[in-house]
Amino acid sequence: MPLPEHRPATADAPPQVRVEPTLSDLGFVVLDVETTGLSRRHHRILELALVSTDPSGRTQEEWATRFDPQGPVGATHIHGITREDVVGAPTFSMLVDEITRRLSGRAVVAHNAVFDLGFLRAEFGRVGRELPWMPALCTLEASRHYLPRLAQRRLADCCATAGIPLVAAHSALGDARATAALLAHFLAGGTGVPPLPEHLELPARAARAPQARQRPGAASAASDRRSSTPLHLPDTTPRSAEPVTGESALASRPHDPTPRSTELVTRFPDLMTRVPELLREVARQAILPRFGPAGIEAHEKSPGELVTAADRESEAMLTPALQALLPGSVVVGEEAVSENAAVLDLLDQDGDVWLLDPLDGTANFVLGQGPFALMVALLRHGEAVCSWLLDPLSDRLCAAEHGGGAWLDEVRVRTAPDVPPPACLGGSVLRGFLPAGLADHVDTVTDRFARVDIGSRCAGHYYPRVVAGADDFLLFWRTLPWDHIPGTLFATEAGAAVLRPDGSPYRAAEHRRPGLLVARNPGIWRQVRRTLLPGHLPV
Question: Which of the 8 DSSP states describes residue 51?
């Protein structure tokens, strides 16, 4: 049955529905959205296009629609859509099932995918749905591999370089068609650069991904309101990188083709979806309601270390929920360790161990300011196999799977390989625990870099900054496992170097050793190491 018409197709406006041929089992769906603004929390999707392709990127089907945003349409001078254009258009809730069907089982592609998928997730949330984790390819990020010499990487820039026409720019269907053509060009080796294996494997990976589902007790698609019904989380708390050393830790190497997490993902296929759902629900219930300019009452659990009701409730909710995801697993949480240091001994066991920081950045949270984060890592035989870092304020999720890459929201990310001179590098040094002599030395060499910030005590904020290129390096001295294991896996899977000052790897069981230097890539690590830490063994 055709979807409700709200505007006839013209040369300037996409048709709402194209003919629906039978889709193949594997392929991509290219996504583009036009929005009423830039904030996924406050603005709405105005127009959506989905172009289905086969695994090589050849177009199979196109589908596009406009929505009634139930408010202002925003920047008409950019997207060309007026209020009159969306009179009588469907709301997102009316088409959510159709959109879910078209996304299911396919790898998602977009140019600046973090933006498009962020808006899509927000719209799903408003109608009580959870958009599941889906493997995604961002053609903007991918252009760094396929078109490495571009100065700018807008869709128009990439298409012009690749010789692809961009017709009806800033319309959802026009941009989605151009992105689909760019995808096919990349996968065919049209730029002279062979396609990355992980890009070719995305359709098969998507076919194994869990499907979208409605939240328990959530509103039906007929409602356009966000459901407030929570996941059913237990409210009691039972207290219970592949090793490399020296220069080999800095060598560029392909991912392990048989990652240790493969068995886990096979046995528990929705693991990569359920953990983010738990983190987001705990943030909604335990963290965000207590956050504000007035701050929150805090207590010292040890000299200089604060704890709040938000920390404790977050850990109390997550501990049994994580254990339920993996029967027989145990949880090592920061607050449990503060009450009983023997809990740390669980890190050495051979089974599945969850490592949990229920609120990283408590000192910032108490002051009513960011950054702060929730972080979880899953260890097997003492080594991290999966990790998740959630920023509750932006809803940004970082995730990593050993041998499977690093993901920002649903987009796989890699660090940039360039190695600028020190005078062009910027980073952060967390000085609170530096020994006096080293702190003095850092002060004398900061002018050799473009920027050296003091940093804020929230590791969950800084590891994503390195992967994104906002920081080129970080130096930590205290290396508690719940602070650093989740970010270490995320950063190393993205191509960053995370090593001790002597070049040895960081392991959870060796958290009492001081010093951890993080850099965007191994070349930058060497440069920063020589300048910041000259008294340590050369690498």
Answer: E
Do 135 and 117 share a structural domain?
yes
DSSP-derived 3-state class of residue 270: coil
Cis before 371 (ω within 30): yes
In which domain, by residue range, is 144 found?
28-211
206 Cβ contact partners less than 8 Å away, ≥ 6 residues apart: 26, 105, 106, 107, 108, 134, 135
Burial annotation 135-158 (CB, 10 A radius, 16+ → b, else e)? bbbbbbbbbebbbeeeeebebbbb
Q: What is the pLDDT along the chain (539 residues), one digit of tens a residue?
A: 233 333 333 334 444 433 333 345 689 999 999 999 988 878 999 999 999 999 999 999 999 999 999 999 998 888 899 999 999 999 999 999 999 999 988 999 999 887 898 889 889 989 988 776 678 888 988 898 899 888 888 999 999 999 999 998 889 999 999 999 999 999 999 999 999 888 998 898 888 765 544 433 333 333 332 232 333 333 333 322 222 233 333 333 333 333 345 555 555 667 878 899 999 999 999 999 998 765 577 888 877 788 999 999 999 999 999 999 998 999 999 999 999 988 988 888 888 999 999 999 998 888 788 899 999 999 998 899 999 999 998 888 999 999 889 998 878 889 988 898 999 999 999 877 888 888 888 888 988 999 988 777 899 999 999 998 889 999 999 999 999 999 999 999 999 999 999 999 998 888 788 999 999 999 999 999 999 887 654 33
Residue 119 counted as domain residue: yes
- For residue 227, being part of any structural domain is answered with no
The last residue of a domain, from among 383, 413, 443: 413
Are 296 and 397 contained in the same domain? yes
Are 44 and 202 within 8 A, CB to CB? Answer: no
State whether residue 180 is helix, strand or coil.
Answer: helix
Question: Do 191 and 325 fall within a single domain?
Answer: no
Distance CA 529, CA 537 (A): 10
Q: Has residue 230 been placed in a domain?
A: no
DSSP character string of 309-371:
HHHHHHHHHHHHHHHHHSTT-EEEEHHHHHH-GGGGGGGGSSSEEEEEEEEETHHHHHTT---
